[in-house]
Amino acid sequence: MRHTTVCAALVLLASTGIARAETEVKVWSWGSAAPALEATLEGFNALHPDIKLTVDKLGYSDVKSRVLAACAAGGTGLPDLFQFQNTEMELITAQFPDCAADLVPLGFDADQQAAFPEFKMFALRQGDRVVGMPWDSGPVVMFYRRDFYEKAGVDVASIETWDDFQEAGKAVQAANPGVTMINDNLNGGAEFVRMIGEEQGCGYFSSDGESITVSQPGCVAALEVVKSLKDQKLMTAADFNGKLQNNGAGVVATQMSGAWFEGSVRNNAPEDQHGKWGIMAMPSVTAGGSRAANFGGSLLAINNNSRVKEAAFTYLSYALGSNEGQITMLREQGLVPSLISALDDPYVSEPSEFWGGQKIWELVLGRLEKIAPINGTEYFSDADQVVIANQTAYLAGGFDSAQAAMDDAAKQISFATGLPIAE
Amino acid sequence: MKSRSRTVLLRSLALHAVIVPLALLWLLPIWMMIVFASMEDSAIFSAEVQLWPGDRFIENFHELQAELDFVRTIVVSVVVAVIYTAASVVLTSMAGWALARYRFHGRGLVVSIILGTMTLPYFVVVIPQFIMVARDFGLSNTWIALIVPPLFNSLGVLFMRQAFTMMPADLFDAARIDGVSEWQIFRHVALPLARPMLAALSIILFLHSWNNYLWPLLISNDRSMMTAPVALGSLFGLLDVSWGGVMVGSVLLTAPMLVVFIFMQRFFMAGITAGAVK
Amino acid sequence: MGSVSLEGVSKSFGAIKVIHGADLDIQDGEFVVFVGPSGCGKSTLLRMIAGLESISHGSLRIGDRLVTDVEPGDRGISMVFQSYALYPHMDVTENLSFGLRMNGNKAADTSERVRGAASVLQLDSLLARLPKQLSGGQRQRVAIGRSIVRKPQVFLFDEPLSNLDAELRVQMRVEIARLHHELGATMIYVTHDQTEAMTLADRIVVLRAGHIEQVGTPLALYTDPDNQFVAGFIGSPRMNFLTGEARGHVDGRQAVVLSGQGDAVVEVALSQPLPSGTPVSLGLRPEHAQVGSPGPGTFTTTIDVVEYLGATSYLYSGTTTKEPLIVARQGVHTDRAGDQVVVGVPPDKAILFAADGTRLR
Q1: CATH assignment, C4-233
Q2: Is there a domain that residue A180 lies in?
Q3: A245 has a chain B CB within 8 A of its CB
Q4: Contact at CB, B42 and A268, closer than 8 angstroms
Q5: Ramachandran angles phi, psi of B27, nearest 5°
């Protein structure tokens, strides 16, 4: 039945092909997101054969530079669609409010918006306008070595808080000589502070973006966890590449990251590690906490000057706004959907062989609705630099307490941004 | 006499004991680039550090070529760099000549302004330049946009001005008395004498164009007009990087420059230090 | 044809005037030398004639053409520079022919002229060499050769010999004199070396601070200088200047009391009498001072230093006073430092200058 309609549509199109010009939609994207978009085309063009999508794969920072330059030039040279990081979207909305199109008049109504979790929509709202559609997300989970944990007799179901995790860590390290429990970027970034703090509902700025909340208890507790992990020698420093290297060498038992890290773990693992990895929810600082946070994730925005906004939106609705599009990208390139309903797709409940038969996507997507929205604001990267510096100083004994380190960070951020520190 | 040659020998040994490790330290990244260019990506993350090239160079290259049409981007880079270098050498030496050898109202001001532009970071200039070229002139994705805007090179103008200022004025006066036109003096007396400086400047300008990233990134986003470094840049995702391709591309971009530099080193140093000894 | 005429030519750099209204007529075929201390403007004046410096006021004619605003290459002149100014990247042939080639001169004529110049200057065997492969004298000859091939009406030389050693300088000086004789062209030659000026010049132009002080034949300048500056500049060793005071004037002779030399009285020919008591300066060339026995018009002085040059000895006295004195004594003598000598002032040879340096006749 469906087959025949498609055929009929094709015949219809073929007959009217000369009259109906093909609409071309161009998109800038980076990394594995670009081939993910290409993977959706087969399904999309079956429905909309008249819209042709051209994907330009660029480097991540190249997209960022080009988009900002093009926005500064009033949209000159900007493609119809472009990818941007959620946390960085404020750069555009604050400086070039007219650069990204409002999707509401194109059909992104309240119902469609409600299909995405609030933590993703948050940064895209500009008053009544919505300047992009959520794409992938990064629910924070723990990637752990089943064999190491089992050897120490640790049951992951018993790990609920960071205290539990540290107890487990001591056992794992005792049972597996030469293995470290977990890696964090430490000197190069404050990822753990951000993730653990967000789990506690604490970001660098308040949700309205009007005050600085980095010295609030949730964030302070996060820094304390990091310090404790390091002091107990349960954590060593490693950046993205270092983590993969440690994974490959089998010297680390756990990695905590956004779920998009799944593909990297899987693709870089040696043959003998297949089936030995597992995924669990991140621990909470407090018993009964949400155990959910987000790290990373991007969106697609429409160029406000594009002449094919409708066609671009049509594509967004399919690729990002439908289970079919989102699941295709998850399957082909490991892009974690932001769409809540994706959890219902049969693919999500398929067990994964590499992960020891675990239904990992069920676990990952199950976190989506629990994630608290955090306001990055346009000052995010400035604030991050301050927190990284103070984290380094605190770990080296430069501050008496985590509270002191964060109070000082709040003062510096306040000085740089002119925003008040929240009471 | 004997003891003196021994102290010389000892001194040279001590010097080499410092220089050789430093040189190796400098060479190590280049060597590792070659090593990684010939390996699978996972080798970079493998536990043991590889120090000897593998056998995947050709395969990595084929992958790079398939994904980016890398050879074409190199052709674009070469064409841009060659035309840019030739045109910029001509323009900067003419400007340098005028500023060095002709007295006119506002000459000091012009030199100060040119000097002043050197203190401006390129990032301050690039956005207005982009707006002008891309939006106002509509020249995105054209050879002109790639080559012309960076042509005016303050460093080159001041470098050539210095070169011409240092030449004895009598030479040009002698030619003037001989009834030689100003253009002929520039072409047949000044330029031949500036040859070492022109060679050094050419290398600087060529490298400037060859390594230029931000401007071609912004102004040419069409695949067919992409320069090689920009094409390589597209291999860098947020965290995921195609290391094999990046390394192969880097080898291909670096090797010709290294060869040219090694062969022209003498020339280059002569030109750079010309002002110091005269 | 090759005459040069300057009329009220002056030059200013902004508010600073470096040449003050120079008037000068140079005949066709004449060899004129500009001399003066450094900074007197002689080189500037030469470069203004060449067209390398603009003329602020006044007019310049070469031959019968007004060339005040004509390009250097069209003035019919050529110039030899102190630095030779040879093109380092061209061999001798190319250096000689460069100007002609650039102006589209016929190749056959060019090589003919180059050959001619080369043979006049004995450069034949050096034609394929680069300037850096030539000695100083050879470079200077190439520079002169480059002037010759232009067949100019006027040759300009800007201190052409000052980079050469003493021996070569004498040699080249003779060569330039020979060249002038052979070519018969007008030559204007700048130097600070008065020996060059005396030996080469038909006429000498003495400049000081942008003013032409005097123009005349070498002999005229030597015997009959217009002022104290010219008198002091021309002649070596320098003319002695003795302070004096006018007294009586009898039969066209002015009595002068030399207050610095024991009030010796000298009577010098002078048409106009000076009021008694007028301060004057008495000029006496070392070679005119006579060592002899006491008498009228003589004074005694003590020798500080003696220089024996063979045929001549120079006796220096009063070297530490305001009034040093040099006496050139012909023949072989045995004067020593510390000896007392009696110096006579021949009244015919002495000349008088007013306090402001102007000549009193």
Answers
A1: 3.40.50.300
A2: yes
A3: yes
A4: yes
A5: -80, -25
